[in-house]
Write a structure and sequence with these properties.
alpha+beta; 13 helices; globular
C-alpha cells in the first residue's frame, strides 16, 4: 500500500522564493497587485508586489478595496480582470501585409514567440474558466493560434479561496472555493494567517510543479487550518445559484416577461461580457497606413450586446432590442453552452454582478425566471 506524501507548507519567505524561482525560469509572473483603486492582475517583480493587507467589498454594481487587519496577500475575491486577458488578449494582430514598389504584396504572420507566463493566484473558479476556454479555443477542429501557444506555455499557481466576496457563488456552481475535481494546475496554495506570520499549504499538480517545489524550503504540516479555512469560505458565499436543470429552464423561458423587466435596466454596455472569464467572442478589423502600402488585420474582443454583433447584410441586426441581446447572453451562458461545449459557461465568480453599472444580478434573474416558469409571478 502506498503511503500518501506528507503535506508541506511555505512561510512568507518561501512564497517570495517561489516568485523568485519563477522569475529565474524566464517566465513573466502575473498576479494580483493593488493599482488604481482595485486589485488588478499585472506583472510582479517579487512577492512584495502582492496586495498584502488588502481586501475588497463587492455588491451588485459596486467594488471597492479596503484595508484588512492582517497581512494576507490573497484574502480578496475576483477583480475586474481574469486570466483571459493574458491567454485570449483583448487585441491581437493576426497578420500584416506590405506592397512593394513593383506591386508585389507580401503577407506574413507574426512570428514572435508567445510569452511564457506564470500565473500566481488563480482562483479555483478561474481555473475552471481556463478549462472551459481550453475546450472552446483548443478543443475543436481549429485550434486558436493566439490562445493555444500561450496556454501551452503557462504555469498555473492556484490559490484556494478563503475570503469569498459579496457577489461570489462558486460553491453552488461546483467550481470552488476549493480545487474542483479534475483540476489541472502546476502548484496549489492555501493561505492561512498564523500568529507568527503567513503560511501556505502547498501541493504540486504536475511534474514541472513538483520540480519547482523540490527546490523550495518547506516544512511538514497537517493542513488542518488550511482545509478548515476553505470549508468555512464555502459557507460564506455572498450569492447562490440553483443550477438544477438550467439548460431546460433557459430553453423554456424564451417568451418570459422577465426579459422585458431586465431589458428596462440593461444598458447593453457589454461590461458583463468583458469581465466574464469565459466569454470568447471576437471580431476582426483591418488597418492601413496613409500610403496604403502596409495593412494589418487585428482581432479584438466583441460582445453579443453590441448592436452590430448580429448584423446581417440586407437585414440589419437580428437582435435589435436590449431584451433579445440580454436573453441571448444568458441563455447561451447557462443553456446552449452545454450543447456546444458540454458544460455551463458560468463559473460563479460574480464579476458580471459587481461590474454591471446598474447592478443586474445573474442569480436573481435565474431565480425570477424559475418563479415565472413555476407560475409564481415575475419574481420581483
Amino acid at each position: 500500500m502506498n503511503t500518501p506524501a506528507p503535506l508541506q507548507e511555505l512561510d512568507e519567505a518561501g512564497l517570495g522564493a517561489l516568485v523568485e524561482a519563477l522569475v529565474r525560469s524566464g517566465r513573466t509572473v502575473i498576479g494580483p497587485t493593488l493599482a488604481d483603486g482595485a486589485i488588478v492582475l499585472a506583472e510582479l517583480g517579487s512577492a512584495a508586489d502582492l496586495p498584502h493587507g488588502w481586501g475588497v467589498v463587492t455588491e451588485p454594481g459596486g467594488y471597492r478595496v479596503q484595508r484588512r487587519s492582517d497581512r494576507a496577500a490573497f484574502a480578496h475575491s475576483a477583480g475586474p480582470q481574469s486570466w483571459k486577458t493574458f491567454l485570449h488578449p483583448p487585441r491581437a494582430r493576426l497578420w500584416q501585409a506590405d506592397r512593394a514598389p513593383d506591386g508585389t504584396v507580401t503577407v506574413r504572420e507574426d512570428d514572435a514567440p508567445p510569452p511564457r507566463y506564470a500565473f500566481l493566484g488563480v482562483r479555483p473558479c478561474d481555473l475552471r474558466a481556463i478549462a472551459i476556454q481550453d475546450r472552446v479555443l483548443t478543443g475543436g477542429a481549429h485550434r486558436d493560434p493566439v490562445y493555444g501557444p500561450r496556454r501551452d506555455r503557462a504555469f498555473l499557481v492556484v490559490v484556494e479561496c478563503t475570503e469569498p466576496g459579496g457577489v461570489c457563488f462558486c460553491t453552488s456552481m461546483g467550481t470552488g472555493p476549493g480545487l474542483p475535481e479534475g483540476a489541472g494546475f502546476d502548484l496549489a496554495l492555501t493561505e492561512t494567517v498564523e500568529p507568527d506570520g503567513l503560511r501556505y499549504l502547498v501541493r504540486a499538480g504536475s511534474p514541472e510543479g513538483a520540480d519547482l517545489l523540490a527546490g523550495l524550503a518547506t516544512r511538514p504540516t497537517d493542513g488542518a487550518r488550511a482545509r478548515a479555512a476553505v470549508a468555512d469560505a464555502a459557507g460564506r458565499m455572498g450569492r447562490e445559484m440553483d443550477p438544477t436543470d438550467l439548460r431546460a429552464l433557459m430553453a423554456g423561458t424564451m417568451t418570459a416577461e422577465r426579459w422585458d423587466q431586465v431589458a428596462d435596466r440593461c444598458l447593453t454596455c457589454g461590461n458583463c461580457t468583458m469581465v466574464c472569464p469565459t466569454c470568447f467572442c471576437t471580431t476582426t478589423e483591418e488597418t492601413t497606413d496613409l500610403t496604403g502600402d502596409h495593412a494589418e488585420r487585428w482581432r479584438r474582443w466583441d460582445s453579443c450586446f453590441e448592436l452590430d454583433f448580429s448584423y446581417l447584410h440586407g437585414v440589419g441586426p437580428v437582435r435589435g432590442t436590449a431584451r433579445s441581446r440580454y436573453r441571448q447572453w444568458l441563455t447561451h451562458k447557462l443553456g446552449t453552452w452545454h450543447d456546444q461545449f458540454g458544460s455551463s459557461g458560468c463559473v460563479g465568480c460574480g464579476r458580471c454582478i459587481a461590474w454591471c453599472p446598474v447592478g443586474i444580478d445573474i442569480t436573481e434573474e435565474v431565480a425570477a425566471l424559475r418563479a415565472e416558469a413555476a407560475g409564481a409571478g415575475d419574481g420581483r
